[in-house]
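**Paired protein data**
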Amino acid sequence: MVRNKHIRLTIIICITSLMLSISLFSGNNIRDLLSLETSSNLISISLWNPKQLQTFQCPVRGDKWIVVTTIFYPTKAIYKFLNLTTQWNLIVIGDQKTPKDWLLHLSINSSRLIYLSIEQQNTLDFRILHYLPYGSYARKNLGYLTAIKCGAKIIFESDDDNLLETNDIYFLPKIVQQKHVPWIGFHRQRSPFINIYG
């Protein structure tokens, strides 16, 4: 019971943060917010070259994504996220304190991973980028937007020190349905999103 409440709270936080970001910074159209340019393959920092900008092509596509931030080398939680029973993709958002050689310390297959260093984040063409301070949890919004760009229908928000109890993420959409989330006014419209910080 407590686990289900924790999972629901995590889902609500993730959705709320994403919707607030979109509503605050989208201007006219969500496509403007999701327009994204970056350098070569995001999976490997050795291939990253800021002089060769091109339209971002997701190196990994899928409908289920985990988004985390980190300032440490890959943790047990990162390895567990990459080895789940069901296929989830992982976006790791680095920060100024994140080791520059983070990817080199990953000792398993990273085919379902997108790692965004600060340098790579700064090449993204999301308008929200200019409002996100370094050393802030808010930078995780870049991960949410990248996941959406890469096909996300479900985003699981976590941290690099949250170790799952099992080898899978059990929650959506069979357990949590719209009827379980209260309908509250959101920008003068009915919406299933709640700002738990409000």
The helical segments are 2-25, 30-34, 76-82, 118-121, 140-149. The beta strands are 37-38, 54-55, 64-69, 89-93, 113-116, 154-157, 184-186, 189-191. Residues 2-191 form one domain. The first helix runs from residue 2 to 25.
